[in-house]
Specification:
- The protein has 2 domains: about 80 residues, no CATH class; about 280 residues, no CATH class.
- Helix content is about 75%, strand content about 0%.
- It contains 18 helices and no strands.
- It comes from Acidithiobacillus ferrooxidans (Thiobacillus ferrooxidans).
- It is a multi-pass membrane protein.
């Protein structure tokens, strides 16, 4: 009677696995090793086991599909042990130093690329209208960004967000790109680079005015020091490469451009947190490009024919590929690895690279008293960035405990 029950159980389970071979959970050991009989070990040889005990060793239980019910060979177990990956914590500890090292190098390289923008524009902009230059710059950048969107398969964003980003680019990046290049024609690359380095301070000032940032005495001191350095830099003498009146006009235009870019940075921060940065940058660039179309047509209609030389092509390639696409990718990688606060501190290197490149490649000279203004500006920028440091984890936890008590 017992043998009939066992035989019925064997046929029942065999019929289930033959008729429905995929009804087991995916990845379960029974599905992978079903009916793989273990080679009898030395202890099993010669042992007198009943037919029922030998049959139960290869048939999984009806109630559970535990791994103990499937007989797996010792060779398979050894292979699994050899191919076992590192624990997540151990693997993270091995890869973390190399990733941080590469992130620092990418951020420094990005600041060098962005610091070289005034120098490259000063050399390659001659003979070409700023609107035409920016038109081809954003056109080339979009031909790179849209294939990246398709390759990375980023999630879609609502249509209203796309329209908002395009309007944001047309209202902020369009005047920034146009005014910055026009102002660069009337001032030195070193001066433009220093003013462009004030972007974090102006963003903070706008945040204070709009009550998006809580003012502290350290932040206020850093802002006052930065603006005092700008005033001292302008009032103590101009670079030898430009006239006084023309340089003041260029400083005014570059300052307006920096304010426009600061508005863009402040308005863009919300969508950068909610959507991928690649999507946000692409649609902002698209709106900027569409805004440059009528401006470029107007320039072609009202001005004589412009000759595009190799220097202009080199400048367009630099602004489209290294300064826009590569710089964006490197900065995004560094921001993900180090965080927004630490990566933002590297922006203080942009005016340093700008002044260094202008002296090295353009032979621009600053008055001896202007170097003091440069140091004051950099000190104010660094102090303001450090003053915005987020609270430490320990202090945050203690604050929460005080509130709860």
């Amino acid at each position: 009677m017992v043998d009939m029950v066992l035989l019925t159980k064997v046929f029942y389970h065999c019929s289930i696995y033959i008729e429905q071979p995929y009804n087991l959970p995916r990845g379960s050991p029974d599905k992978q090793h079903f009916c793989q009989r273990r080679q009898p070990s030395q202890g099993d040889r010669g042992s007198q086991r009943s037919w029922a005990s030998r049959t139960a060793s290869i048939i999984p239980s009806k109630r559970t599909y535990a791994a103990t019910n499937t007989r797996i060979s010792p060779t398979c177990i050894a292979q699994r042990r050899r191919s076992k990956p590192h624990p997540p914590g151990e693997k993270h500890m091995i890869e973390q130093p190399a990733q941080i090292h590469h992130s620092y190098l990418r951020l420094i390289g990005t600041m060098a690329l962005w610091g070289g923008v005034p120098v490259v524009m000063k050399v390659t902009l001659s003979g070409l209208d700023p609107a035409t230059f920016n038109f081809f710059r954003y056109l080339l950048a979009l031909t790179i960004l849209f294939p990246l969107l398709k390759y990375n398969r980023v999630p879609r964003i609502p249509a209203r967000v796309k329209v908002y980003l395009m309007l944001l680019g047309a209202c902020t990046l369009f005047p920034y790109s146009e005014l910055f290049l026009i102002g660069l024609e009337h001032t030195s690359a070193a001066t433009a680079g220093l003013l462009n380095g004030l972007t974090p301070v102006i963003v903070l000032l706008l945040g204070l005015l709009l009550r998006m940032e809580r003012p502290t005495w350290r932040i206020i001191v850093g802002m006052l020091v930065s603006y005092a350095g700008v005033y001292y830099f302008i009032s103590t003498g101009q670079p030898a490469t430009g006239t006084t009146h023309g340089d003041i006009y260029g400083i005014f235009l570059v300052s307006l451009a920096v304010i426009a870019f600061s508005v863009f940075s402040l308005s863009n921060s919300k969508h950068n947190r909610n959507y991928p940065s690649l999507v946000v940058t692409t649609y902002v660039f698209l709106g900027t490009f569409l805004a440059f179309i009528p401006a470029t047509i107007w320039d072609w209609w009202t001005q004589p024919a412009q000759h595009v030389g190799m220097a202009n092509v080199a400048g367009i390639l630099y602004m489209a590929v290294p300064a826009s696409v590569i710089g964006y990718l490197w900065f995004s990688h560094g921001a993900r690895a180090l965080g927004a606060y630490k990566s933002g501190l590297f922006l203080n290197l942009v005016p340093v690279f700008a002044v260094g490149f202008s002296i090295l490649f353009l032979q621009e000279r600053l008055a001896s008293r202007q170097w003091l203004g440069v140091l004051v500006i950099l000190a104010g920028i660094v102090w303001t960035s450090i003053a915005r440091s987020p609270p430490a984890a320990g202090s945050a936890e203690s604050t929460d405990e005080i509130k709860q008590s």
